[in-house]
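This section describes the prediction task in plain terms. A model, or a person checking by hand, is given the sequence of a single protein chain and must write out its three-dimensional structure as a string of tokens. No templates, partner chains or ligands are provided. The sample shown here is typical of the held-out split.
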Amino acid sequence: MGKTKIRAADVRDDFPEEKRQNDRQSHLWAHLAIRPLSFYITPFFVNRGISANVVTGVGLIVLLSAFAALLATPWNAGLLVVGAVLINIWYLLDFVDGNVARYSNLDSTFGAFFDWYVGVIYHVGVPLCVGIAVYLSEAFTILPVDPVWWLVLAVVMVLARLLRRLTAQKVSLLSDGSGNGGELSTIEMVAGAATSFKAPVLLVCALIGAVDIWLLLYGMYNLAAAPIQLLLNMNRLRA
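The expected answer:
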């Protein structure tokens, strides 16, 4: 007899409650749409013996293809939407690889690092590619702003994001190493929810030709979040 094939219900039943609660708190869009969809995609990989690292690698290829499409939009405007769609496909695969690792009981330190590193590429690459596309094309915007400022905002957005991550990691090293210090605050939950909607909001803005609104929303969010997170982490160190 062949090995029993798993179903979406098996993956859903195996999903840890603590991860489900984390999704509700810090990945609202994933909790509402992406995670449930990932349960239906996961069996395709598990039943074929495809590892989580391979899924992450496929996701990286999809993400880099999205970057290429975004950077080519000055010469083909339709690639803006293609790039945004590919980014949302990567976001889905980013949850599928975790499901595969958990269900297959093949979690590894390398796999966790690989998944994290691809996430860094996403957070750095997407705003830079969008900013460059807007700057080179002088299109896809609705606000009367010189395109160079959208590129500047994209760079500042990336720097603020990296500053937040470096601060959080340093605090984790100086404290108990848990990285979050316990239950998330309301501010952190709102911040997590805002970040989780970054990919679908980009797709909507690409469809209506208003990616400057996306840059403005998430640029201002990252600029505001950096000092707030710094204060929260300083309070944790004093506790």
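For orientation: The domain at 14-137+146-238 is CATH 1.20.120.1760 (Four Helix Bundle (Hemerythrin (Met), subunit A)).
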